[in-house]
Recover the amino acids of this structure.
């Protein structure tokens, strides 16, 4: 199976360039419609899952491709290039992953130290699970009820989304992105449940940041600093307005690796008031 270059955006823009192994569609089983409750700590989704029959707490992060396991890297199979510096990661095999009623087998993950993330969450975080791991199902997230649902993709799935608005999403390295307009300019943003704030690339020439109190931005292994913020009025193609406040951050490390550069990262929690659903196969977000 061929590897592919990937970009990770983990928890307030942790970035890495990796060669990951794809998992085949036959490696999963969804027993039925499944739902589970999640915790929200510092704006991040914390779910119960089990890897190789060992239960633990995992961060569900749409800005992550694949699976990260918390633990020291015994060898540097890969290097995560984060906004604060490089982090070693060890490739590991997973026999089985279970999230709700979704069971997947024979997966590849990466192990790296997430101790500072555990400190932030005030609990031991066993790892992180990305949206791409759940690509076989429609994923529904509702922060108001703190419920995560996995819906099998069946022919009458339109009954689930009936009456909901939708946005087209662009998948870049298994990270969902959306286009929004600002002053007749099209801006591309990654959608991330692993970000507690909205972020804008500080190098975006048409968006001078307002000086403000510096903020620490946490990534696995490191922290970096955001020195400014800016408010932008954005619209989607349906002319729906989004008036958002951004912290500025340097995204050049990500954009050097992407076919199409992103202008920022949107915190999904701060973007939608009600439940929303993501279909990565069709490239649609319903809300």
């Amino acid at each position: 199976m061929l590897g592919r270059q990937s970009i990770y955006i983990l928890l307030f823009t942790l970035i890495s360039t990796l060669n990951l192994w794809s998992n085949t569609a036959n490696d999963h089983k969804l027993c039925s419609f499944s739902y589970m409750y999640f915790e929200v700590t510092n704006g991040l989704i914390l779910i119960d899952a089990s890897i190789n029959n060992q239960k633990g707490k995992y961060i569900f992060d749409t800005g992550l491709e694949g699976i990260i396991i918390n633990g020291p890297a015994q060898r540097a199979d890969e290097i995560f290039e984060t906004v604060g510096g490089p982090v070693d990661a060890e490739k590991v095999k997973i026999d089985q992953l279970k999230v709700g009623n979704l069971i997947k087998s024979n997966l590849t993950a990466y192990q790296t130290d997430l101790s500072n993330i555990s400190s932030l969450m005030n609990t031991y975080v066993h790892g992180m699970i990305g949206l791409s791991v759940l690509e076989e199902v429609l994923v529904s997230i509702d922060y108001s009820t703190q419920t995560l649902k996995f819906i099998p993709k069946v022919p009458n799935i339109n009954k689930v989304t009936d009456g909901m608005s939708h946005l087209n999403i662009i998948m870049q390295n298994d990270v969902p992105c959306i286009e929004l307009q600002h002053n007749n300019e099209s801006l591309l943003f990654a959608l991330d449940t692993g970000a507690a704030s909205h972020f804008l690339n500080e190098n975006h020439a048409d968006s001078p940041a307002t000086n403000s109190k510096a903020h620490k931005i946490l990534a696995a292994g490191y922290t970096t600093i955001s020195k400014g913020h800016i408010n932008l009025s954005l619209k989607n193609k349906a002319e729906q307005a989004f008036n958002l406040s951004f912290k500025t951050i340097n995204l050049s490390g990500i954009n050097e690796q992407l076919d199409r550069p992103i202008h920022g990262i949107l915190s999904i929690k701060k973007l939608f008031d009600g439940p929303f659903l993501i279909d990565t196969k069709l490239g649609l977000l319903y809300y």
Notes: The first helix runs from residue 115 to 121. The longest strand covers residues 86-99. Residues 1-31 have pLDDT under 50 and may be disordered.
